[in-house]
Amino acid sequence: MLQEHEINNLMLENLQSVIYLCNYDALFTPLRLAGQIEAMSGYRIDDFLSGKIKIPDLYHPDDQQMIFTEVRKAAKENRAYHLVHRMRHRDGSWLWVESVGKCLVDENNPDKNYITGFMLDISKRKRMQDELRKLSEIVLHSPASVVVTDKAGTIQYVNPKFEEITGYSVAEAVGQNPRVLKSGHQTLEYYQELWTTILSGKEWRGEFSNKKKNGELYWELASISPIMNDAGEVESFVAVKEDITERKNAEQALEEAKCALEKQVLALEQRNREIALFSEMQAALLDCETEEETYQVLAEYAEQLFPDVSGSLFEVSSDEETTRLVAWGGICSATPDFPFLDQFAEASRGGETITKPFLSDCYIGESDSVTTRQSLCIPLFTHGTLWGVFQLVLQPGHKVKQTQQLAVSVAQQYLLSVENLRLREELRGQAVRDPLTGLYNRRYLEAALEREISRAKRKELTVSVIMLDIDHFKQFNDQYGHDVGDIVLRQIGLFLHDSVRGGDVACRYGGEEFLVILPEICLEDAVERAESLRIGVEKMNEKEYRTYPGKLSISLGVALYPQHGDSVHTIMQAADQAMYQAKRAGRNRVQAFDG
What we know:
It is a single chain. Mean pLDDT is 85; it is low at 1-8. The chain has four domains: 4-128, PAS domain (Beta-Lactamase, 2-Layer Sandwich); 142-243, Beta-Lactamase, CATH 3.30.450; 273-427, GAF domain (Beta-Lactamase); 431-592, Alpha-Beta Plaits (2-Layer Sandwich). α9 runs parallel beside α12 (400-429) and α14 crosses α15 (482-499). The chain has 17 helices and 21 strands. The chain is α+β, with helices and mostly antiparallel strands. The chain has helices spanning 4-13, 37-41, 45-49, 61-76, 123-140, 160-166, 170-173, 188-199, 245-287, 291-305, 341-349, 400-429, 442-459, 473-480, 482-499, 523-539, 568-584, and strands spanning 18-23, 30-35, 81-88, 94-105, 113-121, 145-150, 155-158, 204-211, 217-228, 234-243, 310-316, 322-328, 333-335, 358-364, 371-382, 385-393, 463-470, 505-510, 513-519, 554-561, 590-592.
């Protein structure tokens, strides 16, 4: 059996605190230490009892004065002292300790005083207190509202942010149920899913549209978590909620702006598509050689420009009889009814041109299955006379305003193309050939080259141009006279006419300069053709061919569209520069443009 002193020693060694007895002097010299001094300080008891380590040296410098002052005051007042201070461990770390003790007077020696008491390491408790304090400050000053309820949902605590956002004071909120904030925007199923989640011990996250005390609606993002007791049962709930009203308003505004932008983009895409098709139609109409060709071009592009809309082009005779020239879209009016033709005819007789579109009924189908549809009709006047009508048969409920502007543009462009075609035909009937050489003249040359370049651009083809000049022609004229010069020009013209292909165009550009247009030919082949022309002119100097005195030669320049130019002007300029390069190189030669 353990002796009493052994039991006492065992109890002292297992204490979680330190029991001390010290002299009441400046160094608090220890006389007896027991408990966890070695664990608390990192030093052995003997280090203290031998005086090697002095207890005051372990006090934090900022705490020493407070400790001495409080101990002296307690001794003077004959009461216990209670201190909380820091103490340095041997490894350099600082511990928080709680020290409770009292000063004793030796009855046998009144001048001898002692201090006895205990110290407890409270570092862990101190950290927990600091964390709780910080947590309390965080909740108190949180930018989110915090609500704590019991298991039934009765509010037990709200922080200041809750008061600020909702308008309810703490006194008004505590004891209420959070449903006081309900706006009615969430469904019953929404709340049922919330309660199922948190009662099962899981966190729930979601958004609420709630109502403030003043009735104003607001949005908040909430995180609701259950708080469990030691038995693992739900005891209460804590909700952390962020006011996201501004974000939701911004999202709504952004969504509205997005929808508006999408509509604008769709409208812009539609407009760009219409512009592209319109431009293609212009180019296709420009390529037409006859009015009959324009009918099919109009039908092809009108069907793309006006999807789900049928249409027709009518010709109106001088006696106001209508003839359908072409139709598209599958639905055509069996009997076109243009009650406004009289008005158009009267206007045209008075020299007035009407371009305003008219809405008219048209009849679809045959015999007893005829139905009435609304049609958009645009009159086509040429030189003040009603020539035809551009008609679109509209589907029921069709928005006329969206179609009308484009329809007017298409009709006017078509009419312009027809007028241009007629003008071209008229110009063909005029003098388009040079009277001396029989070749096409410069005016025709430029129109033909423009047409070939336009065709090549659309079909991604090439056009070659040969510019040629009679070498020393001025001296030839001065030596033999202009009559002989004219003979030479006629001979060159006849030679070129007989030497070009069926699709080529040979022209007299001016003076002694000639130009040959070679569609759909590469640069190498064009240079070869130019060389054959040069050799052909040289052969004209032989006796059996010669009808003039002197010897002839030509210098030729070759250029290729689109490699050397993308317009009439630039391609002709390139060929001209190439020709002058040939002249500078000694004449009687072929030079391809290399600029």
